[in-house]
């Protein structure tokens, strides 16, 4: 298991990178936004990975920073944050690339929603007291995020919100289902339930 201190450094580095990229974006007059996700353009598929690192403005990034930090800290108590983050970015990005509106999709709100979906569902999949407690804490802290799944405003990438939420649930299911099997195999025990 990765040490929590290392995961906290990873989280701080991830958020710092978002701010550095936004600083460059501001210096270029928003020029980096062109590297966002544009659905169904194979030559622009890099947007699946780059979109969460780009934001419309400082306020947009600020709105994502606090929930990324708080929800990220909660995930660190349960599972490796880097894995959850990469899973959410790739799966949600692919879902938006396949199903999203023809627009430039940017922002880490899909990652926020992925973290939220992960924390809400991981307790259901594992049925561990600790994970269920974190699910309840997540509802208390950020229960209002449910409304972002219903915000179909033109200037909001609701597709990224929904895709992030779905990918967080899929990641929770994946880790709950397969991690115990991997652990048993490493110990030499039976892998089937």
Mean pLDDT: 92
User: In terms of quaternary structure, what is this?
Assistant: single chain
Order of helices and strands: HHHHHHH
Proportion of residues in helical segments: 55-70%
Main beta sheet: strand number and arrangement? none
Strand content: under 5%
The number of distinct helices, counting runs of at least 4 residues, comes to 7
The whole-angstrom Rg is: 17 Å
Explain the layout of strands and helices:
Blueprint: H1 4-27, H2 47-50, H3 58-76, H4 81-99, H5 109-126, H6 129-142, H7 158-187
Give a short overview.
The protein has 193 residues and is an all-alpha fold. The chain has 7 helices and no strands. It has helices at residues 4-27, 47-50, 58-76, 81-99, 109-126, 129-142, 158-187.
Question: How would you describe this protein?
Answer:
It is a single chain. This protein is mainly α and about 190 residues long. The protein has 7 helices and no strands. Helix 3 (about 60-75) packs parallel to helix 5 (about 110-125). The two termini are about 25 Å apart. The model has no long low-confidence stretch (mean pLDDT about 90).
């Amino acid at each position: 298991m990765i040490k929590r201190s290392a995961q906290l450094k990873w989280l701080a580095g991830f958020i710092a990178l978002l701010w550095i990229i936004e600083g460059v974006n501001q210096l270029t007059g928003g020029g980096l936004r062109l590297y966002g996700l544009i659905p169904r353009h194979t030559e622009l598929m890099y947007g699946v990975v780059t979109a969460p690192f780009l934001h419309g403005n400082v306020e947009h990034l600020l709105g994502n920073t606090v929930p990324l930090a708080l929800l990220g800290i909660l995930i660190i108590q349960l599972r490796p944050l880097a894995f959850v983050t990469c899973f959410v970015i790739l799966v949600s990005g692919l879902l938006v690339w396949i199903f999203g509106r023809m627009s430039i999709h940017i922002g880490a709100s899909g990652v926020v929603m992925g973290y939220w979906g992960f924390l809400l569902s991981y307790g259901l999949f594992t049925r561990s007291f600790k994970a269920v407690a974190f699910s309840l804490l997540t509802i208390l802290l950020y229960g209002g995020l449910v409304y972002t799944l219903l915000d179909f405003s033109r200037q909001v990438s609701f597709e990224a919100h929904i895709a992030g939420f779905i990918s967080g649930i899929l990641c929770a299911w994946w880790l709950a289902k397969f991690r115990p099997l991997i652990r048993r195999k490493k110990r030499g025990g039976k892998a089937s339930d």
